Amino acid sequence: MYPENTPHAPTQRAMEVHHPTPLPPAVATPAPVIPVQPGTVPAVASIVLPDGRIVTGYAIEPTHPEPLTAKPAVSRAAVNVALGGVGFLAVCGGLLLLTTFITALTALITQLIILAAVIFGGWIAVQIFGASGHRGGTTVNIRKATFKRNHFHG
């Protein structure tokens, strides 16, 4: 964490050391032994292991857990009502989103139409009020022009 050639030592923190407190030894008082006579003599079973050893012991019967109490079945009508409510909420949410989308799309189209009108109107205004000295094409003084055989000579 710290390089070996560092000229200063890391800061020291005050540390408090906790030592465990020894507990007094527990004195075991033996419980009274009450002899109980088993109702039947359990069977002794012997098993031969693969390595040749023999293990002898009492057979233990597996304990059977108490049967679980059956849960009452949920009525089909209650399930249908719950699913219908969830479906209705989903449809309402979808319609709300669809309405919002259509409103936003309408506003966008309206703004695009207004933008096109402003740009086109500006172009028309420049054409009308722009410099009238040079409009392109040829300027001809009609009074001096002569027409011969339906041809214009200027």
Structure description:
- With 154 residues, the protein is an alpha+beta fold.
- It is built from one helix and four strands.
- It has a two-stranded antiparallel ribbon with strand order 1-2. Strands 3-4 form a two-stranded antiparallel sheet.
- The longest helix has 54 residues, at 76-129.
- It starts with 43 loop residues before the first strand and ends with a strand.
- The model has no long low-confidence stretch (mean pLDDT 77).
Describe the SSE topology.
Blueprint: E1 44-48, E2 54-58, H1 76-129, E3 146-148, E4 151-153
Antiparallel strand pairs: 1-2, 3-4
Shape: elongated
Strands of the widest sheet, in order across it, are: 1-2
| H/E topology pattern | EEHEE
Number of DSSP helical runs:
1
- Gyration radius (Cα, Å) is 52 Å
Describe the sheet with the most strands: 2 strands, antiparallel
Ends distance: 99 Å
- In terms of DSSP E residues, the strand content is 5-15%
Low-confidence stretches: none
Fraction of residues in helix: 25-40%
Taking all residues together, what is the mean pLDDT? Answer: 77
* Extended strand count: 4
- Structural class assignment: alpha+beta
Quickly describe the structure.
By secondary structure, the protein is α+β, with helices and mostly antiparallel strands. Helices cover 35% and strands 10% of the residues.
List the keywords.
154 residues, alpha+beta, two-stranded antiparallel sheet, 4 strands
